[in-house]
Write a structure and sequence with these properties.
It is found in: Golgi apparatus membrane; Membrane. By secondary structure, the protein is mostly helical. It is built from 10 helices and 2 strands, in the order αββααααααααα.
Length: 253
Amino acid sequence: MFNQNSYGQYSSSSGGGEPLAFYQGGSNYGGYASQPSGGMGSMGSMGGGGYASGNMASGRMSMGSEGRWWEAFGTGGLEGEPSLMEELGIDPGHILQKSLTVLNPLGKVDTHIMDDADMAGPLVFCFAFAFVLLLSGKPQFSYIYGVGLLGTISIYTLLNLMSDSGIDAYRTASVLGYCLLPMVGLGGLGIGLGMDTAVGGILSIVSVVWCTYAASTIFVAVLRMDRQRLLVAYPVGLFYGCFALLSIFQVAK
């Protein structure tokens, strides 16, 4: 069936020489040597390495021009970019200015003090008040937040009914939150002193008057309600009176 002569010629011609070509590293495959392919692989790897090193070098250059990586976790930000505090809308200078206005209620209040209202300071003071009450053995977080929310909505409604220009709820909450600062001091005194005594009652009255006077002064200055100051001060005083009661008494469970 098979041509034995042809098979013998093929085996003699291939067996008499070197072993099979594809077992040798330097042999050719149909006229193409394996060494150029290896060279091409080397060139490819060299090219890839050069490209990668170029990318790494450009990355180092870009990082060097923008700033160090740990600056991204700070509040200053990278060079040429706004700081983290600015992006969040928090201005420590304005927070300090409003806090000093509350601490000095007898001073003149700027009519534009609430043009850049924020909630950073009020939230900090509200949390601080709840925290000092917790340290004095009165964990009343839910009551503080509930009274604050209900009181803010009520005062916002009354101010818009009494004034011609009106005020938004955000500014109302901001003013009431900043004026809570004296009440935080009252809660801090309650840690070492008993607030259910005569001294505690006097300090509570002073704190309520202080908070009420500061808040009503800001509302009157912003809304230009000089002739309605007592009408503004009355609901505000009730609002801060509730916080004073929370600092004196323990709510029964």
